[in-house]
Amino acid sequence: MGKKNLFITFEGGESSGKTTHSRLLKKYLEEKGYEVLLTREPDGAVRDILLNPDLNIVPLSELFLFEAARAQHVKKIVFPALRAGKVVICDRFTDSTVAYQGYGRKLDLQLIDRLNSVASFGLIPVLTIYLDISISEVFLNKSKKLNKKICCDRIERESLQFHERVREGYRSQAEKYPERIKIVKTQETFEKTEALIREIIDLVL
């Protein structure tokens, strides 16, 4: 099979399975002979700040922190990997900013589009898998965490209305960019969801 460098992103609401399915896809592509880099946004110290439930970060500051982290991430991690001919799988990218900061926080969408373009240096994924999970499932998973006394992060603690707006934002993006963003409804098992993702990936490859 011929190799080609691809930039693939996973998007979705809280507890949608992005991290699990990113890892499963990495393994699947490696078995096919691809060299794969799995990464995520944000990461490191910025991630710790943005998800800290004890911090009261205003929406605009939150937006700038995400974009600053993205610029560093793309320039120092994603671009070098793509130039080396690797497949890059990223857990969250610019669509998350539109959904969470645009729709969720109600910040100006045109501003976010401009900042996304600048911070990503114009990089656009070849394919985005949007894992669509119902809001009731999001809050069921949140309740399970609280019952187990697992601390929810700052984003997970947001209201039902916030998460509904985020989902609306993702679905709006999918309607706007149907060739790039593919909606995968999460199934009752990871295996069934993974099978749907593989069907899409095989078509792209």
UniProtKB/TrEMBL annotation:
Keywords on record: ATP-binding, Kinase, Nucleotide biosynthesis, Nucleotide-binding, Transferase
GO molecular function: ATP binding; dTMP kinase activity
InterPro entries documented for this protein: P-loop_NTPase, Thymidylate_kin-like_dom, Thymidylate_kin_CS, Thymidylate_kinase
EC number per UniProt: 2.7.4.9
Gene3D superfamilies per record: P-loop containing nucleotide triphosphate hydrolases
GO biological process, one term: dTDP biosynthetic process
Record domain Thymidylate kinase-like: where: 10-196
Protein's name according to its UniProt entry: Thymidylate kinase
Organism from which the protein derives: Endomicrobium trichonymphae
Species lineage: Bacteria, Pseudomonadati, Elusimicrobiota, Endomicrobiia, Endomicrobiales
Name of the gene this protein is made from: tmk
